[in-house]
Structure of Outer membrane beta-barrel protein:
Amino acid sequence: MKKLITLSLALAFVFPLFAQDSTKTAAPAPASATPAKKKVWKYNPNRANDHFMIQLGYNGWASKPDTINTKGIPRSFNMYFMFDFPFKTSPRFSVGVGAGIGTDNFYLDKMTVDIAGRSSNTLAFKSVDSGYFKKYKIATTYLELPVELRFAADPDNTNKSWKVAIGGKVGTMLSAMTKGKNLQSKSGTVNSYTEKIKSKRYFNSTRLAVTGRVSKGVFGVFGSYQINQFIKDGAAGAGSPLVDIRPFTIGLVISGL
């Protein structure tokens, strides 16, 4: 009888343990993380196509001799009509080709320069203490053909995305002139008139420059650097440092592409 009671108690303790093990469910295995899908950009022939590019910048002369005195803020203004050709296999990249006008204004301080060669066969910048113009500048205008390799972070929304472009431009000089206003002496204004002298005699008629820009939306910054000589070889005399001058521009750009 005691054995039967002992066996009954043992079974009473064992069965609940087996019941617990049998009803316990295993925790589900964690689902593997779904890999992020890389967006595939598709060629969109109807993407936005902003044709105008406007640049306003600071114009400087690299390798300018110390004998040339300047004042004020030299300025550049460029405006181009551009065509954009996206790559069909990689539409975030495109090539931009266009045409437009580039203008530079470089200001001198108490100096004159005879760009027409009326008094000399070589170009020379001369300092003057009297008989100088209060405002005096060299202004050049080019017809230019820019070419860019472009990258847009979001080619379907270029008016808001980041954009980068590198390239170059070739230009032909349309005009070059000096413009002086208000003739001065040591005692003050002598005559309030404007003198304009136009001549391309001493300047290279062709401009070759490298360019680059970075934009966010329609606004950005740009830079350009002329790689060929601004002044003709031999125009300023043998060994003159003037032939080393290379104009450059940095500034703001407005463009949707």
Observations:
- The first strand starts at residue 52 and ends at 62.
- The radius of gyration is 36 Å.
- The first helix runs from residue 2 to 23.
- Residues 51-254 form one domain.
